[in-house]
């Protein structure tokens, strides 16, 4: 039984680590909600970054974002969830 639990934990860890990116090209599986976004790898997570909207706080970010908005480095970013994000 302990072996099964260890295998399940290892499988979960492997799946979680596989979701991390190191460069933008590893985010090809992510699609952004609208044309004024670009897909990029930010802090090892695939995100959709709004190319024109800037922010000082998360309340400045609007639009469709399944995983919730984040204001990072003055840019509105959508993502930070398993599978990258939409």
UniProtKB/TrEMBL annotation:
Q: Which domain of life is it from?
A: Eukaryota
Keywords associated with the record:
Signal
What is the residue range of the signal peptide feature? 1-18
- Name the chain's protein: Uncharacterized protein
Q: What is the lineage of its organism?
A: Eukaryota, Metazoa, Spiralia, Lophotrochozoa, Mollusca
């Amino acid at each position: 039984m302990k072996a099964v639990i260890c295998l399940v934990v290892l499988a979960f860890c492997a799946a979680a680590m596989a979701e991390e990116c190191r460069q933008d090209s590893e985010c090809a599986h992510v699609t952004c909600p609208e044309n004024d976004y670009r897909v990029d790898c930010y802090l090892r997570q695939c995100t959709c970054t709004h190319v024109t909207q800037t922010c000082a706080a998360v309340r400045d970010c609007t639009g469709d974002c399944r995983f919730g908005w984040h204001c990072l480095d003055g840019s509105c970013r959508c993502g930070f969830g398993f599978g990258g994000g939409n």
